[in-house]
Structures
1.
Amino acid sequence: MRSRELEKIMRLPRLFTGAALCLAALLAGTGIAAAKDAVQAGVTIPTGEPVPVMAENGNGYTPGTYAVGTIILNYTYIGATFPAGAFATFNLNLNVYDPASPKNDPTYPVDLTLSDIGSKHLTLSPSSPFLSVTGMGWTSTTPVTVIIPSEVATNPDFMQDGAQIVGNLKMATPGGSQLDTVTNVIVKITLVHPTGPCVKAYNFITDAELTDTITASEVNVNTRHRVTSTNPYGSLSSNALIVNACGAPVTFDLKMVLDASFSTQPSNNPGNAVFTFATAGEIDPAVFNIASFGASTGQGQNLCLQNVTVPDGSSFLDAVHMSINNGMLDSALPADQTFDFSATLYNAGSSCSGPLFADAAPNPATATLTFTTK
């Protein structure tokens, strides 16, 4: 090997150990000097986006570094089918690498194109597909959206457990520009069928404003041993939160059962005691916030909602406003000082009876409210 070529290889940055040295050895073996400037790429994942397993040329990859060769992003989607539309976004970070040799230096600026050369089964769409490389020190960050075509999401061939779709993002500069492009980005998404129930069901008690989750209450009793109210909230709400993580819409009937000591509020009149809400995203009841949902829909006094459809990756809330039965004898209160509530999912169109909806767990979902009398 000529001493000039050896010097160039020794000047490669340390982060290129592995892939870069292999490339340098290949160039030396063919008698081609690795003297051109090159556009390199790194990948980072924006906050809130799906996080893939990343590799460089089949080996481990540290996000934020720049690679020579191929960066592979391996995503996994758990569901019955691939979701159609925008699936994820990653940031493509670009810079120019100087091999510390003036030989064959480009004449800047140089046009750079980012193009999807993968299959029709996955689309990689950069927000800026045409860039201008202005010279040494140039950097750029371009968000790239990973899109699954609707015909893939509805194609039975891609509904099998383990099905995989692939896309390839290529960088290119005009021929003769003397600016190399040494990195490709390959995106793979693998479909993994859920191994158990994929609808999560929760039942919990709040105040009527759906602000505070409560697990205990006082029951006020007068001198005639008659129940008058609960404290600190006189009006409560039994809530069913249904979260769909199945990868496809689900439809079911939903039945709410109140403890025998409670009745809907208002009761026995045309007013709405039951309200439903829906929102995109998988809501966690541990950090429940009604502001995460949109406007409510009144459901009258209906404790059996039929044919409820929840889109994939969405949450549904059924809130039943209630109050304790005023005037009941305190001797009729539960002996274990615990009120019991439940939310049960049945097969759609069953009028809340018969077989339970198999894709939900737990089913029924239950809630308890302990109490003391005062």
2.
Amino acid sequence: MIVIMSLLSLIAELDPSTVRVSAGELLFARGDPVRQLFLVKSGLVHLVRHQENGSPTVMQRATAGDIVAEASLFASNYHCDGVVASHAELHRIPISRVQHRLRTDAAFASATAQHLAREVHRMRVRSEILGMKTVSARLQTWLALNGGELPGKGQWRSVADDIGVSPAALYRELAARRRS
């Protein structure tokens, strides 16, 4: 958490503007030039890539403290769509300002690198969970990695999203665990 706070405070020094975006709106589309860095203050933003058959794959679930599409720091165009999944408040900073700070401020570059390394770890864990065959195994691994506790009742849908199952499948698994 210390790394997140230091990155957030360093980003605040870049004088970001704050934008509020409604669910369903696009922050950017695949192929758009990268002009902004978005940092989630509240809400949920999905980074979505559509397969050849049109089905969407969520590549990132960005929540409070997350940078949306981190790879965009070093890309000229977005490789996915940035879709607001639930009403969100975001910091928006011109990418040129962020890149300049990365080149000239070692503390900012270090905090950003640490944040990105944690994101790589988080995505590897998510990939491992999504590769598991049963809802039970996915949930058990998620619980082990998240302190063994489920969030409050209103947040179970986000757990279902995290482990790549429908909310109904998660609810069935939770009911089976309560019966056991």
